[in-house]
Each structure stands twice: as structure tokens, then as C-alpha cells.
């Protein structure tokens, strides 16, 4: 009697974990939404005051909150003043935002 309940519970939680991990709209460091034109963009919403931002070692010249086109894939966003950096995944066809740099 106990085994069927444990088996059912294990299946439920395993399935729930897979759904959470596979959702391209959830991200600990920001959010994503499909773009109407199929382009891939990134907007940096938050940064340390006075931070000089770079993406993949190149200056990011757009103001905070303004999305710019990026190639699909993993990018490293850095603050050259503080040495902070974070990797951000920008899936093809999505507008991605980076709004949290914390641990």
C-alpha cells in the first residue's frame, strides 16, 4: 500500500522538476519573452552605479533598460570597475533581461 503512494509521489515531483528546469521563460537572473520578429536581444536592467558594462569583453553602450541585439548563446556581462561578471544565456528568438547580479 505504501509503495504505490511513494511511486506516485516520486513521479509527480520528478515531472514537476523537469517542467521547472525546461521553461525558457524562468531565469534566476532575469526574464525572457519571445520576440515578435524572431530576433535575439538582451537588456541589462540593473548594474552597480558607475559601472562600465561590457559584454563578451566589448563595451555595452546602451543605457540600462534598453535592449540591444545579441547573437544567440551564452554571453559574459561584466562590470569593469568592480570586476563583477555573470554569464547570461540568450536563446534564439527571445528578448532576455538581466536584472539581478547577486549571489
Summarize the amount of helix as a percent range: 10-25%
What structural category do the secondary elements indicate? alpha+beta
Question: For the terminal residues, how far apart are their CA atoms?
Answer: 44 Å
Run of helices and strands: HEEEEEEEEE
Extended strand count:
9
Give the mean pLDDT: 79
Share of β-strand residues: 35-45%
- Largest beta-sheet characterization: 5 strands, mixed
The order of strands across the largest sheet is 1-2-9-3-6
Number of helices: 1
Radius of gyration, taken over Cα atoms and rounded to an integer in Å? 18 Å
Unreliable segments (pLDDT under 50, ≥5 consecutive)? Answer: 2-25
Shape: globular
Indicate the topology.
Layout: H1 2-22, E1 26-27, E2 30-34, E3 41-44, E4 53-55, E5 58-59, E6 67-69, E7 73-79, E8 85-90, E9 94-98
Parallel strand pairs: 3-9
Antiparallel strand pairs: 1-2, 2-9, 3-6, 4-5, 4-7, 7-8
Amino acid at each position: 500500500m505504501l509503495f504505490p503512494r511513494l511511486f506516485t509521489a516520486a513521479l509527480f515531483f520528478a515531472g514537476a522538476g523537469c517542467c521547472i528546469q525546461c521553461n525558457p521563460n524562468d531565469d534566476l537572473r532575469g526574464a525572457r519573452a519571445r520576440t515578435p520578429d524572431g530576433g535575439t536581444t538582451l537588456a541589462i536592467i540593473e548594474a552597480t552605479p558607475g559601472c562600465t558594462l561590457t559584454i563578451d569583453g566589448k563595451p555595452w553602450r546602451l543605457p540600462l533598460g534598453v535592449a540591444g541585439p545579441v547573437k544567440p548563446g551564452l554571453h559574459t556581462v561584466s562590470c569593469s570597475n568592480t570586476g563583477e561578471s555573470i554569464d547570461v544565456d540568450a536563446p534564439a528568438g527571445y528578448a532576455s533581461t538581466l536584472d539581478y547580479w547577486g549571489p
